[in-house]
Each structure stands twice: as structure tokens, then as C-alpha cells.
Write a structure and sequence with these properties.
Number of helices: 10
Strand content: 15-25%
Oligomer: single chain
Distance between the termini: 53 Å
Pfam families: PDH_N, TYRAAT1_C
Organism: Morella rubra
Order of helices and strands: EEHEHEHEHEHEEHEHHHH
Number of strands: 9
Largest sheet: 9 strands, mixed
Keywords: Coiled coil, Oxidoreductase
Helix content: 40-55%
InterPro entries: NAD(P)-bd_dom_sf (IPR036291), PDH_N (IPR046826), Prephen_DH (IPR003099), TYRAAT1/2 (IPR045011), TYRAAT2_C (IPR059064)
Protein name: Arogenate dehydrogenase 1, chloroplastic
Length: 268
Amino acid sequence: MSVSSSRSAPSRILRIGVVGFGNFAQFLAKTMIRQGHVLRATSRTDYSELCAHLGILFFRDADRFLEAENDVVLICTSILSLPEVFQSMPLHRLKRPTLFVDVLSVKEYPRNVLLQVLPEEFDVLCTHPMFGPESGKNGWKDLTFMYDRVRIRDETICSSFIQIFESEGCRMLEMSCEEHDKEAARSQFVTHTIGRILSEMEIQSTSINTEGFEALVQLKENTVKDSFDLFSGLFVHNRFAQQELENLELAFKKVKQKLLEKMNEEKD
């Protein structure tokens, strides 16, 4: 793991094809367009009007999308729908080697899928912008962008894509997919799990909130903004997450046992 800048290679304007144009893709697209990159998009939902407003060419037809000679194909689908998306993509329509980039919240899983389905001559860059529309609404400066150069031959295209985030002031973190998932299981997955538990408890602000409780309410509210598919994807497709769930359950049992022992001591 290293905090670094992209390797020296001249930056260039990229033709970026976005697969899946939900909220996160729209969030990224606005900065990419502002930087001068040319975007095309395709998605199961018809975003043609929104794309027209943003100056993005929208393709309902996957064949035409892949024939558009993108430098980069950016995968912004949900974690759970990734295999289905690639099964429906006519990759033989690609006219030349292309850089495939994913921005999913787990990393080993999309890396393995991309390496399995893509021809050997296609480059693979796995990334995770550790921010979103809320945390990045006032700019990306000092927000973390994780990336792993899984299979790169065209350094100019790869570096130009990475520089999209570097030029915005992101904290650039080069890390293996495995290391990312191991750390994310403890940080991101545990955070989402606690938030979901608080949601099930239906906690609400009170008239006597402490700052700590305010933070818990905010955690709950931020967590439930994300879909349950995202949360389940963090569990199902991160091989380190099950152990963290078991650790969380064990820790709860230990704390409960200590409280019960203390209560029994008071009774004696």
C-alpha cells in the first residue's frame, strides 16, 4: 500500500463510456465533463433526457455503445448485478483494446470477473473512490481514491484516467484489491452493519441528545441512504466480511455478559 501520484505519462482527453448511470455515476460524470472528457453512457434505465442535459451521448443499445470506440469503459453498476451486466455486453463489438475500470465498493470480486470475461489485450484498473455525492459535494480535495493497476499496457490511458482524481486533489492510494477488501471489511462493512442495526432499532433524535448519540443518529441516516443491495454486496462479495460479522457478534455477546455479571454482583 502506498500513497502516491500517477506514474509519469502525458495526460489526455479521454472518451469514457459509462456502464450504469445511477447517482454515483452521475456524480463522477459531472467532474469528468468539467475537465473536458467526452462521455457516453448506457444503462438499464433510460437516462437519455438527463444525459442530453449534461452533454452526454446516451445509448440504449449495448452494441452501439461498445462500437463507439471509448478509451475507457467505466463500470458503475451495482455489485450484485455485475455478472448479469457482463453477460449482456457484446464484448466482440469492441473495435480495439480498451481500459476497463470499475468503481465498486469491493475489489477482489470485480477484478476476478473482469479478468475472466475480458480478452487478454484489454487493460484492467480496479478503483474505489472513497467518497460520494454527499461527502464530495464541495469538491474532492483530500478525499481518498484507491486504485490497483491490475493489468495495464497502455500507460497513457491509465494515467490519464487516474489523473482525473489526482488533479482534483484526491489522496491517491495505490493498494492491492485483496488489501482493500481486508481493510474495508473492518471499516466500511462494520460501519454499514452498525448503521443497519440502529435502523432496525428505529432510533430517533431526542430532546436530550448527547453528541455521541447525535453521531449515531447521523450514522443511521447516512447508512440507509444506500440501498440494501449495496450493503448485502459488501457482505456477499467480500470474503473478509463474514469474519468481521462474527467478530461483531462475539463482541456484543462479551459486552452483554459483562453487564449481566455486574448486575448479578449488585444483587448479591
